[in-house]
DNA sequence: AAGTATACCAACCGCGAGCGC
DNA sequence: GGCGCTCGCGGTTGGTATACT
């Protein structure tokens, strides 16, 4: 396997690794406030951080950026993630783009630690295996709850036309089948207002 | 209370795409 | 067209917290 260009890797000179300190965060935020979130290598240098640009970018994108929402992923968000993952696969940045305030890293982590397990359990159950434990039963019931809400096609939807369009396509069980390119492009171009409505409920 | 297993998540790594020279 | 640099993405790792025995 060919090595990545040297420029894309953090060098030994940029020795500081591991968890960021409050002081580092502050320095990084100050430099970005002045120079903007670009040219990460020079941002790192200007901040006097012993970090590579890549690390600075990641820290900013996933933690320091304004309007970041952290933790407490709602049922609606979870539902949306499930639907979008079904539609887009592991395109975490695209999925995150449809969830205001959420980062690709957070969604990826949430998927890997929560949702993938739930889905495996659900599939297992669908294949007719016995559910083993109370914990697993709970997870399966949670999945059923999500599926039920989709099938009901109610609760979280507003009545305005755009919202109901996207809501129906997202939650209607009929879209469990193959999703068309037309649907996908329509969905991905959807205005953020629908998501704001969703979060306001 | 102590040791071990599991879950969670921040951070790192490698790669590819895009851009300017 | 080739090269180097930067950026963004997705996969993976490792440290910490929590649950379990």
From TrEMBL:
Which segments constitute the HTH myb-type domain? 12-68, 69-119
Q: Which InterPro entries match?
A: Homeodomain-like_sf, Myb_dom, Myb_TF_plants, SANT/Myb
The record's subcellular locations are: Nucleus
> Principal place where this protein is found?
nucleus
Q: What is this protein called?
A: Uncharacterized protein
Q: What CDD domains does its record include?
A: SANT
Q: Name one GO molecular function term.
A: transcription cis-regulatory region binding
Q: Where is the Myb-like domain?
A: 12-64, 65-115
Q: Does the keyword Repeat apply?
A: yes
Please provide an example of a Pfam family that matches this protein in its UniProt record: Myb_DNA-binding
Give a GO biological-process term: regulation of DNA-templated transcription
Q: Which UniProt keywords apply?
A: DNA-binding, Nucleus, Repeat
Q: Which GO terms describe its cellular component?
A: nucleus
């Amino acid at each position: 396997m060919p090595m990545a260009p040297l420029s894309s890797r953090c060098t030994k000179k940029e020795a500081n690794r591991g968890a960021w300190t409050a002081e580092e965060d502050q320095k990084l935020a100050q430099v970005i406030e002045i120079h903007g979130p670009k040219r990460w290598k020079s941002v790192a240098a200007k901040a006097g951080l012993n970090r590579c640009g890549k690390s600075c970018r990641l820290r900013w994108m996933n933690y320091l950026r304004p309007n970041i929402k952290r933790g407490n992923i709602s049922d609606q968000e979870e539902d949306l993630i499930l639907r979008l993952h079904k539609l887009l696969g592991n395109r975490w940045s695209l999925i995150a783009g449809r969830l205001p305030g959420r980062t690709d890293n957070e969604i990826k982590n949430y998927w890997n630690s929560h949702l993938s397990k739930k889905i495996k359990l659900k599939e297992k159950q669908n294949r007719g295996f016995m559910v083993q434990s109370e914990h697993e039963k709970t997870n399966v019931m949670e999945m059923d709850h999500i599926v039920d809400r989709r099938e009901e096609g109610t609760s979280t939807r507003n009545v305005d036309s755009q919202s109901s369009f996207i809501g129906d396509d997202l939650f209607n069980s009929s879209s469990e089948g193959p999703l068309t390119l037309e649907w996908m492009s329509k969905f991905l171009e959807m205005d953020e207002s629908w998501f704001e409505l969703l979060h306001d409920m």
